[in-house]
Design a protein that fits this description.
By secondary structure, this protein is an all-alpha fold. 73% of the residues lie in helices and 3% in strands. It has a two-stranded antiparallel ribbon.
Length: 340
Amino acid sequence: MNPALQGLMTIVLGVGGCLAYFWLSNQVLDKVIFPARGKNIGKNINRANLIRPWLFLFPALFALGLYLAYPVVETLRLSVTERVPVPGGGGAFTYEFVGVDNYAKMMDEPKFWEAVRNNFLWLLVVPAMSTVFGLLVAQLTDRLKWGSVAKSMIFMPMAISFVGAAVIWKLVYDFRPIDQEQIGILNAIVVSLGGEPHTWLTTPFWNNFFLMIVLVWIQTGFAMVILSAALRGIPEETIEAAIVDGANPFQIFFKIKIPQIAGTIVVVWTTITLTVLKIFDIVFAMTNGQWETQVLANYMYDKLFRAGDWGIGSASAMVIMLLVLPILVWNVRTARREMR
């Protein structure tokens, strides 16, 4: 069957199934469980109205349980067990409890610490650069006639998948021997200036920064949109009062605007931090963790699907979750506090 037709059928069946569920569940609730008739009609209607919101929430709760809660529990179980082949079982496996042995083995591997070190480096650079560039673009284009066009161009990378962006930038960094024509933009510029082409992605340490540029390029648009909205929310009276008092543009920006949108800056920073902690696609597509560019998510993939080591792979997944969880909880609490 044509993939497009399969996708259309999936959408139709999914939407139709949801509508059928909502209609049928409400019919059963109103006509079978708590029928609106008899001497208890008022009490039945009240009971049905108490249950009805949970009927609408059930599909979402079920999906969250199936695709979020269950994988977390199963990953935790796999991280404290070892998969052992059953003798004469025809490829069957059994799981033996090993406690924290998988975590100990993982921490004994140099590749794990390389991944931790690189993730920490990404955390230092990408959220800071994305937020700074996004803030600068939001401020500089806010008063320009063509500012909306510039913002659209900067936001455009957000519409590209991480793998697509990695392919684009891999061509930018492409290397050819010096006697061949360079198709990589960066090496073409270097050669045109009289230099020699470099293998940018195979140079240890510095290649991490070349990978980070890709994520900064994508996330700057996100930071720009959020921070631009925050800047527009600053009362004009505040800025006008500062101008009357003799404040220059730099003082207005750093002493008036930045303090008033500090909460939004922190939210943008932490949101990009969550993305960085889970970064996988760019590294996988561009270097596959080679040349000292390994990160935690790619290390997890290598262990799970290349080495077939479900114990250490699941342990690394739990490490990623433990790193992400505190920031996620803090973000949710901050958002709730601002809504109140």
